[in-house]
Amino acid sequence: MDNLNEFDEETFLRDHFESSEFRGRLESPSSSQTILNRTCGDQVTLDLLIENNVIRDAGFEAQGCMISQAAASILCELIQGKSVDQLKQFDAPSMLKQIRIPLSPRRMQCGLLAFQALKQILYSLDDPQADSITAGNI
Fold first, then answer.
1. Helix axes of 66-79 and 113-126: crossing angle, nearest 10 degrees
2. What pTM, to 2 d.p., does this model score?
């Protein structure tokens, strides 16, 4: 039975990696953030359309491993319709649970790239002078 669960989790990740639903930049985002993982070279750009403090649309562009790209898709699906206040409470362990497979510490950075972009966007809403961040420097 465990092998079946592992297969389901891997299929879930592969489906998100191959999905085009959220892949691509938004035409007129309210906010965007690019995060680079200097350790492996993965890069994710997250675009959000925020209206009345709610995420109305999300899109991403990613270059890198399957985990970083699938995690960006998972995140975009998860945050649609959520309020900024709800997302400020969303933490890294919760994001890692959404990925559904255990990740080594090095791979966790890949799985959290889009999450870090989201957090940077949320922080910049409070502090418009916030700079971009690079994974590996955190």
1. 40
2. 0.86
